[in-house]
């Protein structure tokens, strides 16, 4: 049967093994290419070296890897029955990738990555594309994966232990286990101790002293009775129990099995009833859940629309809040200027209503008028003095001019 599911599935993408899944898929792809005889048909045709198991995993030479990737994809498409000519190095890479992805969509292969991821010619997306194309080519070749047949294990020849040997071994083990325990009461005569101490001697003596005829007792009955009463307290037989004895374990296991079988009947009925109740409850929950989903579907759609509108309104609010912040800053600046102007107006208003400056001005004017009057008087006196001096000088000059004999004053 052809394998329709991936060879390796990673459920958790964040697990430590997820980073190595490409290596496993690349090895799987290489096995499929070998099944398609790419080394005989593909490599000689395009004159390309053999692809190693890590060729498309790591990026080494993007140009060479992209050419190999597109050529191999075209060859696999032709093997699958498609019509795709071998790409040339001068072809548009976007057009080549588009043709490959269109073919994958035609064969219902999900494409969940952008086309530019394939331009490198390596990586998990390139391996994914080639792996799906190889699967399609194997389907076209009617190749079938066979299940691995595991031969049944041959029965091992275990040595058979005879019953007599087993009994001897068991008796030996019991003797060793009993020998580990010491007698707690030394005054008590134990049959086991007598057997261990004199058993072998008794056997040898009995074998040596076997009579040929039937023995007859010559002991007096009364003496034998007295001797028996004397040694009877010492003939106490004790049986030592060992917690490690397998017989006690078997008895305990049988008892536990009986208890389990007895209690299992009632418990099983209760568990079956509980299972039925849980199944009915789960069915009711599923039915109720489906009903609620149908009832809440319009509300959920409306809620989604309101969420979208809320997102748009929030975006508008963020844009508007930026303008509000700028306007708030301008408003604060204008408020400060207004406060400054108000302060100046208050100062000027208070100075206009106050009469003290006017009185001071009047006093100053009066004082200045008085000073001007004094200055005018002084100016008049000085002008008079100057005029008198000029007249005197002029008179003196005329007298000097009229008197030629006067001596010139230098």
From TrEMBL:
<dbReference type="GO" id="GO:0042073">
    <property type="term" value="P:intraciliary transport"/>
</dbReference>
<protein>
    <submittedName>
        <fullName>Intraflagellar transport protein 57 homolog isoform X1</fullName>
    </submittedName>
</protein>
<keyword id="KW-0969">Cilium</keyword>
<dbReference type="InterPro" id="IPR019530">
    <property type="entry name" value="Intra-flagellar_transport_57"/>
</dbReference>
<comment type="similarity">
    <text>Belongs to the IFT57 family.</text>
</comment>
<dbReference type="GO" id="GO:0005794">
    <property type="term" value="C:Golgi apparatus"/>
</dbReference>
<dbReference type="GO" id="GO:0005815">
    <property type="term" value="C:microtubule organizing center"/>
</dbReference>
<dbReference type="GO" id="GO:0030992">
    <property type="term" value="C:intraciliary transport particle B"/>
</dbReference>
<dbReference type="GO" id="GO:0005929">
    <property type="term" value="C:cilium"/>
</dbReference>
<dbReference type="Pfam" id="PF10498">
    <property type="entry name" value="IFT57"/>
</dbReference>
<dbReference type="GO" id="GO:1905515">
    <property type="term" value="P:non-motile cilium assembly"/>
</dbReference>
<keyword id="KW-0966">Cell projection</keyword>
């Amino acid at each position: 049967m052809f394998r329709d599911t991936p060879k390796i599935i990673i459920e958790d993408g964040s697990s430590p093994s997820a980073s190595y899944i490409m290596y496993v898929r690349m090895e799987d792809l290489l096995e499929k290419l070998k099944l398609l005889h790419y080394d005989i048909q593909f490599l000689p045709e395009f004159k390309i070296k053999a692809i190693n198991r890590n060729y498309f995993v790591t990026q080494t030479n993007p140009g060479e890897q992209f050419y190999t990737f597109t050529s191999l994809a075209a060859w696999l498409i032709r093997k699958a029955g498609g019509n795709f000519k071998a790409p040339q190095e001068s072809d548009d890479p976007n057009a080549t990738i588009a043709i490959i992805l269109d073919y994958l969509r035609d064969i219902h292969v999900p494409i969940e990555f952008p086309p530019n991821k394939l331009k490198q010619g390596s990586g998990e997306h390139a391996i994914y594309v080639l792996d799906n194309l190889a699967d399609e080519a194997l389907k076209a070749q009617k190749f079938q994966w066979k299940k691995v047949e595991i031969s049944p294990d041959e029965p091992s020849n275990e040595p058979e232990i005879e019953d007599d040997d087993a009994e001897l071994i068991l008796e030996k083990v019991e003797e060793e286990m009993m020998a580990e325990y010491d007698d707690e009461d030394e005054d008590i005569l134990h049959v086991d101790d007598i057997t261990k101490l004199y058993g072998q001697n008794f056997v040898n003596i009995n074998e040596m002293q076997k009579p040929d005829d039937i023995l007859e007792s010559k002991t007096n009955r009364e003496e034998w009775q007295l001797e028996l009463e004397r040694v009877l307290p010492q003939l106490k037989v004790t049986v030592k129990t060992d917690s490690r004895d397998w017989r006690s374990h078997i008895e305990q296991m049988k008892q536990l099995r009986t208890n389990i079988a007895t209690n299992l009947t009632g418990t099983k009925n209760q568990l079956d009833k509980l299972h039925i109740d849980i199944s009915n409850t789960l069915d009711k929950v599923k039915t109720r859940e489906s009903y609620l989903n149908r009832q809440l579907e319009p509300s959920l759609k409306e809620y989604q629309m309101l969420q979208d509108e809320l997102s748009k309104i929030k975006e508008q609010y963020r844009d508007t809040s930026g303008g509000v912040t700028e306007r708030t800053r301008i408003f604060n600046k204008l408020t400060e200027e207004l406060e400054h102007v108000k302060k100046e107006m208050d100062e000027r208003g208070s100075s206009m209503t106050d009469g003290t400056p006017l009185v001071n001005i009047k006093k100053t004017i009066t004082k200045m008028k008085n000073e001007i009057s004094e200055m005018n008087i002084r100016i008049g006196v000085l002008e008079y003095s100057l005029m008198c001096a000029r007249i005197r000088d002029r008179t003196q000059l005329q007298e000097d001019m009229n008197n030629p004999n006067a001596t010139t004053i230098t």
